[in-house]
Design goal:
Two copies of one chain form a homodimer.
Chain A (H helix, E strand, L loop, with lengths): L2 H9 L9 E3 L6 E3 L5 E11 L10 H19 L2 E11 L4 H17 L3 E9 L3 E11 L14 E5 L4 H8 L12 H6 L5 H6 L6 E5 L3 H12 L2 E5 L7 H18 L5 E6 L4 H7 L7 E8 L4 E4 L17
Parallel strand pairs in A: 4-5, 9-12
Antiparallel strand pairs in A: 1-2, 3-6, 4-6, 7-10, 7-11, 8-10, 9-11
Helix pairs in contact in A: 2-3
């Protein structure tokens, strides 16, 4: 199957139509309109087979997850998603794989109103690289650098499920169903509504991709602060507690990664606003600690004793 | 070496500073300002080791070429380059490779005023995927679809050199020097000045990545026209003619690919404007044929006899 036939059959015209796409797939570059007063948020992420996901993960999940981890970066900036570029490197043109991959990709793209406006198809080891673009009102992007001592630290959703789900992913290809960590590894939900609702409220935000400890530490580094994290307050799902017990669940939440929840900080003065917008957040949020003036990241139990942190997140190299 | 150390050492703060970068490397996404009245041009391209370039190509050339082939897409739209996202998948963190790669990348980035505003580092088979972003005044992008019967067809630079250069690339790693096809394969020059100078003059444009026949055919398909191409008018370099003779040189120009020159069409009424701007084009241009109402792509010699077209460009799958 020829490159242009693959694009035509699986990728052209499948996503939502957007008025701000002047020229989408089919020229040397996409031409896009950014509305006045809006800034562009842009990010890129790669998923490599055998590194970021197991080779036997269902292709629909690969399609969903590739886009979701990118949209999660936009969520962490408070940006509204708009456009994506997809660079797909494939060992061969496999119709069944492409069909399922594109279904998973476009189901999420349609739901989040992301238009696929361009891309690249190449032959080689399986690598899915996506660049996403979102829009955010000028000056309102959520940065990592705004946390201040006394700010409350929150996370959305549940932590640790995806890391455990990856361990339990069935070796036989098949759809990962149900409300389990397996489903949350395969089909992470980018917290876009929460990110947008936090504009003007959160002082800092990041998405949890490498484990809460490592990602919160990025906020601390960028903000020049420390933090006290209450490990007994971490939101752990019934599924996770059932599968591995509290001790291991806390470790997975802190260092497991792949959750794609948001971690954000809120000044005490804005807590009423946060509570007023909780309905709009699109995800439950849990207070897990507070920003301190220094002292790095301290993890403590409810009784104040320190929690020994095993490792600080996924090491890419 | 840790991911963040690699970014810090080889990629942060190396490019040009741009006022329109609100937040560059170091947050979940870059935040960028698009000036009023400008549209965004966005494109992505992947280079896979062993597929798009030989494993033994010097890493500085890999860095240059990865960015150049992307900028070439912006040139074909008439866009001015602004920002890039770099997704780099590497088999290991190799200091010498990273140093040379980043030198090649940033030498071109600085020259073209492209700021690296974000990226992704992953472990896996070598794959360099870059998303580039440019700016073009609203409505002035050069599309593939505007060619009309009677328009003259032009190409910039020389064709065929890069395809022959790839064949002659020394198997021993080392800098490809001199005014040769080897240098043009390793260090293609994106025709950005030409692209911008052609706004309001060219009726259609594309960059020549898969061979002139295949790429011109994209213009014909998008415009609903045919073309008559004068193969004896094709710009062939002294180096190419010396290395393989005219017959083979014409074949490489038509079907070899990797030239990253521009192919564009100009209505007869705008030829005076084209000539007036030739100085600003930044590249010699050669008239190689004309657009016809139909009949597909006909390649003819100076005496009017047809030139048999062997294949229509690089097949990616």
């Amino acid at each position: 199957m020829h490159e242009f036939e693959i694009i035509q059959q699986y990728f052209s015209g499948h996503g939502p139509q957007r008025d701000d796409v002047v020229m989408g797939i089919g020229d040397d570059a996409a031409i896009l309109s950014v509305p006045p007063g809006m800034q562009l948020a842009a990010s890129v992420d790669s998923l490599v087979a055998g590194v970021h996901f197991p080779e036997h993960m269902p292709p629909a999940a690969v399609g969903h997850r590739s886009l979701a981890v990118n949209l999660s970066d936009l969520a962490a900036m408070g940006a509204q998603p708009a456009w994506a570029l997809l660079a797909l490197t494939l060992p061969q043109a496999d119709d069944a794989w492409l069909l399922e991959f594109s279904r998973g990709f476009f189901a999420l793209a349609r739901r989040c109103q992301v238009a696929l406006v361009g891309g690249n198809l190449a032959l080689g080891p399986l690598n899915i690289t996506i660049a996403v673009h979102g829009l955010v009102p000028g000056g309102q992007a959520l940065l990592r650098s705004g946390a201040r001592p006394g700010d409350h630290i929150y996370v959305s959703g549940w932590l640790g499920d995806a890391a455990r789900g990856l361990q339990e992913l069935p070796a036989v290809p098949g759809a990962a169903a149900g409300d389990s960590g397996i489903a949350r590894f395969c089909y992470p939900e980018p917290r876009l509504q929460a990110g947008m609702a936090l504009r003007g409220i959160a002082s800092a935000a990041i998405d949890v991709s490498d484990g809460l400890a490592a990602d919160l530490d990025h906020i601390l580094q960028a903000s020049g602060t420390g933090a006290r994290l209450q490990v007994d307050a971490l939101p752990l799902s019934p599924w996770l507690l059932e599968h591995c017990g509290r001790e291991q669940a806390v470790n997975l939440a802190l260092t497991g990664g792949d959750d794609y929840e948001l971690c954000f900080t809120v000044p005490a003065a804005r807590l009423p606003q946060l509570n007023a917008r909780l309905q709009a957040l699109g995800a439950a949020v849990t207070r897990v600690g507070e920003i301190t003036a220094g002292g790095g990241l301290q993890c403590v139990r409810a009784d104040g004793t320190p929690w020994p942190l095993a490792a600080t997140g996924y090491q890419h190299f």
